[in-house]
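Request from the bench team (R.T.):
"We need a structural guess for the complex before ordering more adenosine-5'-diphosphate. Sequence and SMILES attached. Just send the tokens back."

Command: build protein-adenosine-5'-diphosphate structure.
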Amino acid sequence: MPELQGFGAQLAAGAWVTTQVAVYAMAVAVVLGLLGALAKEAPVAPLRWLANLYTGMVRGLPELLVILLVYFGSARLLTTAAGWFGHNGYVELSAFAAGVVALAFNYGAYLTEVFRGALHTIPRGHVEAGLALGLGRRRIFRRIVLPQVWRVALPAVGNIFMSLLKDTALVSVIGIEDLMRETALAVGYTKEPFTFYLAAALIYLGLTAVATLVIHTLERHTSHGMRTLSS
Amino acid sequence: MNETSAALEVRNIHKRFGGLEVLRGIDLRAGSGDVITLIGSSGSGKSTLLRCINLLEPPNEGEIIFDGESLALRRARDGTLVAADQQQITRLRAGVGFVFQNFNLWPHMTILENVIEAPRQVLGYSRDRAIADAESLLEKVGLADKRDGYPAFLSGGQQQRAAIARTLAMHPRVILFDEPTSALDPELVTEVLAVIRDLAEEGRTMLIVTHEMRFARDVSTQVVFLHEGRIEEQGPPSKVFESPESPRCREFLASHL
Ligand SMILES: Nc1ncnc2c1ncn2[C@@H]1O[C@H](COP(=O)(O)OP(=O)(O)O)[C@@H](O)[C@H]1O
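Reply to R.T.: structure attached below.
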């Protein structure tokens, strides 16, 4: 391990922030992705347009730009909204919240396509079997469709999480004290860029290794009844 | 067959897929304990008729009467008839079982979980009661040892028997079978037909779409021959199989017996 000149604790704190940003953003992105996938399959045309606009926009914009837009745009939106409720003055999302929302916005679009693909693998007959027994639509979605979508999508969702984890480095531009930013600060003080960038690299690798392990465990837990994985 | 003993009745069912008129006015009535088999060439509308009965397919016209109760229908924007009363259609679907050609077991659940899902949710059974029920039904269809297995690891015949157990777990008054053995390898057909035969002997009310003519002759109280969306011949198996009036039915039987 290279000599960290007392910046070890700061890097650890940054790694923890990075982990939190990644996990929260992923949770929100999964929700957005499921809603997006359902909207794309909805019988109501405006919902489909909205979902297509969403994924189209994300596909066409650099992620960094989306992060900056959400950060500064949300502050405008919130300040205006607060004005309506009689609150005068500047309101903004914390950098942390803005970073989470911006990453989730991006990754929710990728997950929309993943979940939509997974939805298409569920045979219509599985839903019909539920209907024929008198089960309600919501129950069928929750008990029959969703668990199957989840396990079909999980490998792709895992990959997406890995790339989200790495992309958290982008949120350092809006001042979140994540691993990337703490590293840059340490470099600024010590003038030893290689040492600290190397340390950061090792920590990122450690984080992705843990993530890989978690994803594998999840896959094993959801693969029951699938012939290819469990045999 | 008097008016009150009908378990299930449909009147004047019409169904179109786009410009294709698949059902052209079907009237059918199943008294309690009737076993009605529906035969006819492929594309004559047998499956569609069955699917219209529990509204898996919305008909364009018609009336469905289950247990003395006419199903309230309303016209959807595309011109088909859909259920107007959610509770009533749930009652009908809970009381009219449906067995699919390709089983449609839920692959992420064990056989036992497949069987107890609907009784727990729709009939409000406790877990213990649903499991006790399911175990005796799995025993009955010869799958007691597979309760904790997953569908993908069962043979087609076993999957279909599990699907029948899942349907029976709702204690349905009527069971609809949509070509229950058509997706099976020939050597697995007998075990499934044996289970359905047992159900017939118990006096259950059933409508069965099948291509197994010998089976139809043995178990039916009534045979219905469909041709191009209309009932072309109908009667007890002795009459339909031995002296059908319709030349088309004669032709069909000649090529299928
Ligand atoms: N969902 C559907 N969309 C369009 N056409 C359909 C659909 N289901 C069935 N059909 C058509 O309706 C006709 C009757 O089909 P079906 O009821 O399956 O006949 P059978 O069960 O007697 O073989 C066929 O021509 C079939 O192609």
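Two things stood out. Chain B has a mean pLDDT of 95. Residues 197 and 219 of chain B are 7 Å apart (CA to CA).
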